[in-house]
Design brief:
Keywords: DNA recombination. This is Tyr recombinase domain-containing protein. InterPro entries: DNA_brk_join_enz (IPR011010), DUF6538 (IPR046668), Integrase-like_cat_sf (IPR013762), Integrase_catalytic (IPR002104). It comes from Flavivirga jejuensis. The protein has 18 helices and six strands. A three-stranded antiparallel beta sheet has the order 1-2-3, with helices on one face. A three-stranded antiparallel beta sheet has the order 4-5-6. Helices cover 49% and strands 6% of the residues. The protein is mainly α. The two termini are 50 Å apart.
Length: 429
């Protein structure tokens, strides 16, 4: 409820300008109507508004600029409050005559108030912002989303968005985002169709690219008050999904007799071998094991040894429900007794480890097909749970998946460590 106030049942965002920012913004406080009487909606809206306000203050400080009620952003906001869409004068000249007349009549009623006139008749042109520069602004506006990600997670989050923008520039050009039209996206769609047909790629890959590009443009448009019609630009560009091939699981006998056989693993880096051991008997994601805090998350001196997969400052999990405690048995217990402080060489470098191990297994002919990868061990773990008819809720708890039983809510804290240990003993390799 921080920065929220209520007046006659309506909620407002209200925040005093910090003292250290007074030289850039002389207002006593910022107050913005959230246009809702619902507390939950108000909280959600206030979080978004607060991000925008803080980004605005940060930009003022960085550029040594000063807040002005007459800047382009406020003209856009004024237009919206008056029930119009801000249109620059050059574009307004191309609008229908009824649109132009309605705006002129409104300014007459307002006695030609300068702010109203400037807002409705488009006195100021929006600044030109090519898409490559928009990406730079996007990183600035996305800082709150990256606070709890480590260096590797930030890189993995940024890479597909950078790639999406670069694909657009390569296909369409480095256009001003305020001038983007649906035809531009259809050109990008055609380019992806050619790649899918000629390079055996999946439609889902193209759709992810479109989603990342859309996210960049929408975020920048919101923060810069460019009023871009995102839905119109991205209309009808998503491709129908193809047949999605999931990774194939390894057979249990194959894992024990070949994949974890020391003779078959001759030449592998020692630490990589033990990571393989840990993955096989925990079902954890590689990133989860390679980001454990050796001092706090690996517990070997307890009656039931276990690892605690959890977020911390500078590192976030894939989902909220990914946090869990996993009892250590079999190969996994052997691995962590060998490396009680965690796997230092590949700490926070899950991509590098996956690349190395998949190449090694391919070279040693330890991948029955190309659809078998390191991640197949997680699928094998899931299959062992299913084969032993472990209840779905406990399966989800061990896998770090969300459990939503049909027709009922989730109750309680889940299975105890002792219960999970008894399950793990039943499925150990």
């Amino acid at each position: 409820m921080k920065y929220l106030i209520s007046r006659n049942g309506w909620y407002y965002y209200s925040r005093h300008v910090p003292l250290y920012l007074k030289r850039f913004d002389v207002r006593e406080k910022v107050r913005i109507a959230l246009n809702t009487k619902c507390p939950k909606t108000a909280i959600k809206k206030s979080v978004v508004v607060n991000d925008e306000v803080e980004s605005y203050w940060e930009r003022l400080a960085k550029t040594n600029s000063f807040h002005s009620d007459q800047d382009f952003k406020n003209l856009v906001l004024a237009s919206k409050l008056l029930g119009f869409r801000y249109i620059p004068s050059m574009k307004l000249a191309e609008a229908e005559i009824k649109e132009i007349i309605s705006r002129i009549l409104f300014t007459d009623k307002a006695n030609h108030n300068n702010l109203v006139t400037n807002a409705l008749l488009g006195k100021e042109e929006p600044k030109k912002l090519i898409i490559s520069k928009a990406l730079e602004k996007f990183w600035e506006y996305s800082k709150p989303r990256l606070l709890n990600k480590n260096h590797d997670q930030k890189r993995k989050w940024k890479n597909p968005r950078t790639k999406a923008v670069n694909n657009f520039i390569k296909t369409v050009g480095d256009k001003n985002i305020g001038e983007l039209v649906n035809l531009d996206m259809l050109k990008l769609r055609d380019w992806w169709l050619m790649r899918i047909q000629n390079q055996d790629m999946k439609p889902e890959t193209a759709n992810k690219d479109f989603t990342h590009l859309r996210g960049v443009i929408k975020t920048v448009s919101t923060h810069e008050q460019l009023d871009i019609d995102i839905d119109a630009i991205f209309k009808d560009i998503y491709l129908p999904k193809g047949n999605t091939n999931t990774r194939l699981p390894f057979e249990n006998d194959f894992i024990v007799d070949k994949l974890l056989n020391d003779d078959k693993l001759n030449g592998i880096e020692e630490e990589a071998k033990y990571i393989l051991y840990a993955l096989a008997d925990t079902g954890a994601r590689p990133q989860e094991l390679l980001n454990l805090d050796g001092e706090k998350d690996i517990i070997l001196d307890a009656p039931i040894p276990y690892i605690h997969i959890r977020p911390r400052k500078g590192y976030s999990l894939k989902t909220r429900v990914s946090e869990r405690r996993l009892p250590l048995i079999g190969y996994a217990l052997k691995a962590f007794r060998k490396y009680p402080k965690g796997f230092i060489k590949y700490q926070g470098r899950s991509d590098q480890f996956s690349t190395y191990i998949n190449s090694f297994l391919l070279e040693k002919e330890l991948r029955p097909t190309l659809d078998h990868t390191l991640y197949s061990l997680r699928h094998s773990f899931q299959d062992r749970l299913t084969a032993k008819e472990i209840p779905d809720r406990i399966q989800c708890q061990l896998m770090g998946h969300s459990f939503k039983a049909k027709g009922r809510m989730r109750y309680g804290l889940g299975a105890s460590l002792e219960h999970l240990y008894s399950v793990m003993k039943r499925i150990r390799l």
